[in-house]
């Protein structure tokens, strides 16, 4: 299975509409891939909070239209990163879109863990409430977004739902890049699954992006890692390696769930 991660540079001097069209052409150029992955909030920028309300769009808005056509033209499964989604009832969500090779929207994952603590995304966007998986012919994907990477219980839930690979688009800042690579490898190792983590490049809203998109195999080996600038990673994934790793080192079978809380000392 061939996967391409498009590490997109978010240039504040490029309009959102122009970036959509440019990225669509990059997707079409990956017609030899089976799966193409884009970063988090690449149309507007993950830290461009002041633009969220103005650039919010419905689920089937302009990004959906352009990316659906790009997936269909290229004949690929496309994880189109995420958008600022405006729900008809009012809330904003950080929502990832996944398209089939026919251009059909097969999943819309609303980010569960919002970053910012008491500002930014954490107060401007509502949290998602549901885990999301997508069944491809070769692999079942589990979906997460950026800050989700810090919460291992989400990925355990995805494994329980059948995930064999994780796709995590992100707008991760350079100042915490060491955490990005560490957590991506940790989530792969502990769940014996592929990790495809795709970040943005450039600087937007004065926040330098980490770049360094990364693909990790179920044993924790790094198959490919990007640099800091705009770049495309192309990797070959062996779906059988998930099964082999889990059979040869069956750690997941030793999970102990539902343990009682610690007793209060007398």
From TrEMBL:
It comes from the Bacteria. It holds the Pfam family CN_hydrolase. Residues 1-239 form the CN hydrolase domain. One of its GO terms (molecular function) is hydrolase activity. InterPro entries: C-N_Hydrolase (IPR003010), C-N_Hydrolase_sf (IPR036526), UPF0012_CS (IPR001110). Keywords: Hydrolase. Belongs to the carbon-nitrogen hydrolase superfamily. NIT1/NIT2 family. This is Hydrolase. It comes from Streptomyces purpureus. The lineage of its organism: Bacteria, Bacillati, Actinomycetota, Actinomycetes, Kitasatosporales.
